[in-house]
Amino acid sequence: MTTTRLKSLLLRDGEVPGLYGMTVQAPAPRYEPRVMAKGAGCQDVLDMLVAQHAATSVIQDFWWDKGRWGGRTWLAAYEGNGAAAWFRRFEAGLRKCGTLAVTMPEGRINSRVAVGKSPSLGDEAVAFELSTDGPGGRTLTDHHVLVRVGSLTVHVSDRDARRPPRLPLDVVVGRQLDRIGRA
Asked: Please, which pLDDT band fits residue 133 given cuts at 50, 70 and 90?
């Protein structure tokens, strides 16, 4: 699948309630050289989160007013059975990786990993949280849903959804999967 085709599958203005705006990165940037994570299973988790092994990927960021980042959708297309193989590695990695600690070009990530109840979506899906200690001892938690549909993965996440407005993950995931299904 081409980057242009993948980009055409992203949501449109008005499909996510309450947003101030959306931005798109197509194709999504690659981490070259590859960013390395320490700890059992953590490299497979990181690689899937940044679509390291995808043939192409696109990112759509969701913004609230006053420039507050609300969340993101990351669509990735894999060749052959790559999506299924990487999804299995990702799931196994989530069970082993207690803390995802890595230095990215954008900054350091040091998040606790917690796997939730897997939703019944697509060919396979997993829900998980990444939590970190924020200012004033407050815990910042990002909620994630990653779904595989054939050779595509759909990764939707919110950004510290404790304070309103909250990105409606179920709405975004549902609408994104509906758009893919119709295509």
From this structure: confident
